[in-house]
Automatic annotation (TrEMBL):
Residues 4-62 form the GntR C-terminal domain. This is FCD domain-containing protein. Keywords: DNA-binding, Transcription, Transcription regulation. It holds the Pfam family FCD. InterPro entries: GntR_C (IPR011711), TF_FadR/GntR_C (IPR008920). It comes from Kibdelosporangium lantanae.
């Protein structure tokens, strides 16, 4: 996961708490290839130090495939 690559124990803990808060866990509706492509967009935005693009791509990635029960 991207948060683990950041080498931030705090970020990893927050992400784990977020996923645990979703009753039944996250519901992923995209393919693995689509997920990898979305991660690449997020990583490229981070490399470019484009916080707005990174935030938008991250939001779209999470909200596009996670359904709350």
């Amino acid at each position: 996961m991207l948060d683990e690559y950041a080498h931030s124990p705090l970020l990893v803990s927050i992400m784990r708490l977020l996923w645990q808060a979703l009753r039944g866990g996250p519901r992923v509706t995209r393919t693995h290839a689509e997920s990898v492509e979305e991660h690449a967009v997020i990583i490229e935005a981070l490399r470019q130090a484009d916080a707005d693009a990174a935030a938008k791509a991250t939001y779209n990635h999470i909200m596009g495939t996670t359904h709350l029960n």
